[in-house]
Amino acid sequence: MKRSIFRLWQFQFWALMLLSACNLERDIDLKLPKYEKKMVVECYLERGKPIRLLLTESQDFLDNSFQIPEVKDAQILVKNENMVYPLHYELQLDTSHRKIYNYVSDVSLPVNPTGEFSLEIIDGKGRKVTGKTRFLEELPIKELIWQFEDADKEPKIDTAKAYVLIRHNVSPSGNFYRFIINKKKGNELSNQLDFIYRGITATNGEVSIGTSYRFKDKDTLQVLLFHIEKQFYTYLRSVEDARDAAGNPFAQPSPIISAVQGGIGIFTTIQKDEQWVVIKKN
Predict the structure, then answer these.
(1) Neighbours of 209 (CB within 10 A)
(2) At 148, phi and psi to the nearest 5?
(3) pLDDT at 41
(4) pTM
């Protein structure tokens, strides 16, 4: 028995030695097609505010350039009924939402806009991007509550965490929503939740959506409910899928489903309800 075990060990040893001596690497040359760069658009229209838009250019996946591929020579128009809003190149930083824009309008949108908005972008290379959107109704948060775990158990009362739950009505004009919670830390906001969903679980015309147990006593939270277009919902889902696929060597490539034609990106409207709350046990 000992002799057979010794022979098996010898066989495994020499097999490993032979494998280590083999050259298992092989160089393969792949001829990749030339990548066609496209304009990338990010634009959110808000009531009573100037239009701000970020315009960049897509890059090859293997491009090692670390510069932001801005497009600075574009002519951009946003039209709504009889109004035309030209945008000019100007860098602006939105600290509250941590975004940067490079095209802005001099005129603000009306507080109560109506009708369809159209976007037209033509750059110096003759490329053209178009898009359409319209404002939806704003949906208020009907109820915002929180509940601590193990509230009746004395040993855990000091370390218990709370969940947050909101209720809102469903909308007949578009049943797509975005739920965001940010936690205030000093003068900064730290994102705790960013969730998009359809109101298919509504009961009696109301949707309830909540978090896990994650918030502590005296946490200050910014709670945001967005009523979003279907095209924005689809775009966000595709961005999440593409991000997950990029980090997984076994996943199939997932394309981004854009809400603009002729390029990549999103052109949509913002309608939100915002509430601030301090989580307390009593």
Answers:
(1) 17
(2) -85, 145
(3) 96
(4) 0.81
